[in-house]
Sequence to fold (370 residues):
Amino acid sequence: MTATKGLEGIVAATSSISSIHDGVLAYRGINIDDLAERASFEETAYLLWYGKLPTQTQLAFLQQQLSDFAAIPEPLLAQLKLFPSDANTMAVLRTAVSALALYDENANDISRESNQIKAIKLQAQIPTIIAAFARIREGKEPLAPLKNVSIAHNFLYMMTGEEPDVVAVKALDQALVLHADHELNASTFSARVTIATLSDIYSGITAAIGTLKGPLHGGANEAVMKMLSEIGSLDNVEPYILNKIANREKIMGFGHRVYKNGDPRAKHLQKMSRQLGLLKGDSTLFEMSARIEELVTGQKGLRPNVDFYSASVYTMLGIPSDLFTPIFAISRLSGWSAHILEQLDDNRIIRPRAEYTGLINQKYIPIDLR
Ligand SMILES: CC(C)(COP(=O)(O)OP(=O)(O)OC[C@H]1O[C@@H](n2cnc3c(N)ncnc32)[C@H](O)[C@@H]1OP(=O)(O)O)[C@@H](O)C(=O)NCCC(=O)NCCS
Fold:
């Protein structure tokens, strides 16, 4: 038995949800370039869950369900107010999603029907949790979700208390489409491992959130913004990046396990970053990002991934950097839950082996002789 570090190249599941072939990412066979340009996030979530694009009636019904489920239980809201205001936002989300199970009498029902409803509920409630905590930590009252608006619109409204402009809603909605699913990424794998023991969907999503939190996965978008802030100006990009390269340090937002010739999602976020810069009349973040890309790709041959331009996009939308990874979770909830449903449709516990590299034939030494 020989281990493959990081399970690179190991095919660990069959799935009909999303695919990556020749650098093309598709959800249910539809190229994400097409979805990013034309589909809403709600349509995309429907596609991931049900395997096909919704009709007008089906989409309207889903939007109604998302509206109906968006409020969070009062005791959970009270709990959010007790958390330290400087708590890590992903830790807050992970704790809150785990706590949601306590207020759902069907939490442990793992039938497809029940899990499908819970997926929609979680999709509706996660944005409310994040926006509520964002306000609470600033000493503001959380806001009740609006009825009959998109998830992107509702999230921006619940965070700021203001009606968001259409450009901001469109940009966030497109970012949500692009992050919705990504084959067997680390957090999705976590969700599948957890549910495969016949645990419950809340446990699967809680595990996935904990996995997404790491800077090698979803946490990279926040780390990119930290880097942009440290760099501070266009003039400082070159010395900063060249120094990192010389010290063989990782540059966040670059590289990918699967894409070696570029992440197909990055170009959409790059375009969005450029457009938002022009619209705001301040393209500094975009220009700094573009220069970083030029240097890192030129010197290391590494291309930006989905997280790289997300950082400047979200900042230009007025979103604090520690909400970037929670926003990734809003989107990826659709993929995680689709994978949970798929795993349970044809389940077998996921239990690989380890290559043992420790000592052998050791004797037990009684404690008083050690
Ligand atoms: C995404 C990532 C975790 C993939 O990891 P992986 O498949 O295990 O690839 P490795 O870390 O083994 O990288 C292979 C080589 O490229 C280098 N490399 C990869 N990403 C790099 C980066 N962002 N900056 C600098 N060097 C990088 C590694 O140092 C390694 O070089 P070596 O062979 O000389 O040791 C990795 O590219 C990374 O850490 N990127 C930064 C974090 C990030 O943006 N994550 C979001 C992913 S969507």
